[in-house]
Queue: 2 jobs
Job 1
Amino acid sequence: MHGSVVRVHEEVEGALREGRAVVALETAVLTHGLPRTAWKDAAFESWLASTHPSLVGRGGWDASAPLHLEVVRAMSGAVRRGGAVPAVVGMLGGVLHVGLDDRSLEALAASPSPAKLSARDLAPASTARVDGGTTVAGTLAACRLTSRPIRAMATGGIGGVHRGWSESGDVSADLRLLAEVPVCLVASGAKSILDLPATLEMLDTLSVPVVGHRTDGLPRFTAPPDPARRLPWRHDSVAEVVATCRRHWIDFRRSSAVLLANPVPPAMALDDGAFEELVEREVAASRAAGHAGAAVTPDLLRRLAERSGGRTLRANVALLLSNASLAAEVASAIAALNLPES
Ligand code: PSU
Ligand code: MN
């Protein structure tokens, strides 16, 4: 595939050729979104045991492994348990891999200073032969590089319109790629560090369908849905979700993504009035510290995890796993539709 610049893993390529389910997973969450150290959290581990028993025990969740690596491994495990093949996307030495095996994933996790790769970065980063994690935008771009397109993907929360965007102009390329790539993206809405009303408006402008999964309100990443901020649509079953995907892509010939907004698991959600104040304070502190551009989101995620005593981290890991599980169900149902190739 594409000489040495793009490498599609044979398991991924084989599954797509045979019309089986594939879920793309991003790696900016590994390189830039999560701590590179081990993480013990009793509340999380008991939640995992009750909701994802097959991910616990031998070969399952390893609390002594570096968290960033363990989370992507567990997301891949959740995708497999849901009957789909994971396609972890990331760059190693300038080669964009669509489907990193465990050894390559370990290499990316151990890379000393990996780049954060949005869609704009793929070509120059490849020329410079760097290692890097792909954002939602970078990963969506990769979903079109296979012989048949990848139709489902999972992440934590999408990037969007940042607070203070009218001064900084900071609007995530995730939105632009969602407008371009026909994938069903499962995410817990947009990250709560963003200007959420402006992000929803921009998704409207870009004509990306946003559908709540069993919720009327907008999921807010680590915080539960806001009932006051209603989503345009809600579906309660995967059958409805894929009916919408089929209608959107085939009957109405739209070529954008469908954003399936899946709330953080309630037991792991961060739900208190003080949280919004914390976000405001940390957004201001991050700006005062001079963070701009691609550094903003990673800096804010790190600050919030520290200042919340790890509670945002617990919610973030739980929602990543929950979104990977749901994306596997969606991918399986999409595969069963036998969509025409383009
Ligand atoms: N979801 C998470 N953690 C993350 C991200 C998503 O739970 O770190 C990443 C995704 O890769 C997303 C990126 O594309 O944050 C957004 O970065 P920016 O705002 O710079 O576009
Ligand atoms: Mn940005």
Note: Residues 248 and 254 are 5 Å apart (CA to CA).
Job 2
Amino acid sequence: MEYEVIIGMETHVELDTQSKMFCACSARFFGVEPNTNVCPVCLGMPGALPVINKRAVEFAIMVGLALNCKIARHTFWERKSYWYPDLPKGYQISQYQYPLAYDGWIEVDVRDLSTGNWSEESTRKRIRIRRAHLEEDTGKLIHVGDKSYVDYNRSGVPLLEIVTEPDIRSADEAYAYLSALQQLVRYLGVSTGDMEKGAMRCEPNMSLRPKGSRELGVKVEIKNLNSLRAVRDAIAYEIRRQTALLARGEAIQQVTLGWDEARGITVVQREKESAHDYRYFPEPDLPPLEVSDAWLDELRARVPELALSRQDRYRRDYGLSAYDAVQLTSDRAVAEWFEQVVACAADRETSAERVRMRAKAAANWIQTEVFRLMKAHNLALSDIAALRVQPAQLAQLIRLVEDQTINLNTAKQVFEEMFESGADPSRIIEARGLAQVSDEGALRAVVAQVVEAHPSQVQQYLSGQEKVFGFLVGQAMKATKGKGNAQVINRLLREALEGQRARQ
Ligand code: ZN
Ligand code: MN
């Protein structure tokens, strides 16, 4: 029998604000000495009063808008009561009845760059978002040997919980959803999205059912997934495990699973437990949250154009391939840098055809030379905005190649120097005497010399060995120290050789 997997995703995203959700302690706690980034509010001392972090609310609303959600205009905070050593108050301030954002969707691209199975066809899928609400993070338990320690530095960091509808149908789709969400929070600049550092944590819940069936199977939850890869591997493993059990007629247990990365298997963390009663009730120490029209408009204006929309635009306006469009939009800073190059490379007089040519050239330069040099300097893609070389300078370089002032090989040398020093390409070309030789008289003399110096190769060419032509072009380029205009050399050499043939 064939089975179908139904997956829903619950993700917690730490918001990258300066201070915590309800106090003035820093929200950036990574690598800080344990229990030094705390105050009476985030330690849950009796009588300490919380104050709402406006920036965190703004970030949450921006994510809600980017996820095409409705935004609750009047909402309030609630206490979610449970006891755990990392939760000093004995409750978490959260939102239950009226999440800040609800009823949205995200479009994800199921294509995977890393597998190399690249297709130009669109593989987009819409995944509905049920809700996104704001709450506070807990402290952290650290287990060493038979002792457990608790660090409250993270206690009270703003946390956005995002819950999907059960629309995900494979491990690859789960991976695609999570990378899209990660890219979205990074585009918005509201979170680092680093799963490895716990800034984004996800818990998939999944069940299998016979294909075509309307009933849902027994649901399991997977925890402790600290990378995108772990999410895909854990789900793929669970699909295999449950399919095998069902095929043998065995029942699936309703459990909470953990992912053992080293062994590549899921392990039972908790057996089925009775549903929690969190005794939610309105938080008496905080006022309700009101979102005005003006505030919402202001936040809407702060949501940038997202990756998929940019991809569509690059393909439509510049004729870029899907692959190039995906690469250039993987990071917002790269997309913006590319767009600046294109803007600088064209003015109102530039024809649409030429704009497309220059945009394609810019796309190639960025994906080859720019990325190569950034990698060699250990820079992340997001560092592109801080490079010495400016988008306008790459635009100049592209035009210098286009009008044949320099050839592409020389341009690569020039670019390396631009990358190091930030100097203008025209200055480098002048200082180093790199301008391309297109003068026909000079090149004709070079070609004549080459023909004379290589009589046997010339004979080979004349007897039909076309590949010798490339060798002769190479000799001519060498004679011009690489500055000869290859197109002109090609034409003149062809003329010289055919002239010899006619004379034979
Ligand atoms: Zn605090
Ligand atoms: Mn939560």
Note: The mean pLDDT is 94.
